[in-house]
Specification:
Elements lengths: L1 H16 L10 H5 L4 H16 L21 H6 L2 H13 L4 H13 L7 H17 L17
Helix pairs in contact: 1-3, 1-7, 5-7, 6-7
């Protein structure tokens, strides 16, 4: 479920980048793609919590190298599929993850001793970084909803 929430967040951030206000985003695209109202509400909750806490939705791009990308080492390239690496670049370009987050994903994959890390494995690790980091702050918030919870 966490991976689906990140997919929704990626969609919402893409729409925001296209200057579409949050209230005017066409959610039928998401429901037609099979996402549940709970998953959509959880993604919106994540966005609203970031806004409420005064955090930037978009991570800062390094001022010294705004157009550079992390190049994978030969050993990392053997583990990450090109699609998984492209997914990380996409998230970075959307501003959802920072260079440090990319390093954390790469470290987790390499330490977990994956033979191959595809997009699905990468999505799972990114979801844990994005969604669990909020819980570790101890604000008492709940990022994951129960089956019938919604945001009004």
């Amino acid at each position: 479920m966490r991976e689906k929430i990140v997919e929704i967040i990626v969609y919402l951030m893409g729409e925001l980048r296209n200057n579409i206000p949050l209230g005017e985003i066409d959610l039928s695209v998401l429901t037609n793609s099979g996402y549940t109202p709970t998953e959509i509400s959880t993604a919106f909750s994540w966005l609203y919590e970031k806004i409420d806490l005064g955090e930037n939705l978009v991570k800062e791009i390094s001022k010294s190298s705004p157009h550079s990308h992390r190049v994978l080492h030969d050993a990392e390239r053997m583990v990450f599929t090109p699609e998984a690496h492209g997914y990380l670049i996409q998230l970075r370009e959307l501003g959802l993850i920072s260079e440090e987050d990319i390093e954390a994903v790469i470290d987790r994959v390499m330490l977990a001793d994956y033979v191959t890390a595809g997009t699905q494995e990468t999505k799972s690790i990114v979801a844990s970084i994005l969604l669990e980091s909020e819980d570790s702050r101890g604000f008492g918030s709940r990022m994951m909803f129960n089956g019938k919870d919604t945001i009004h």
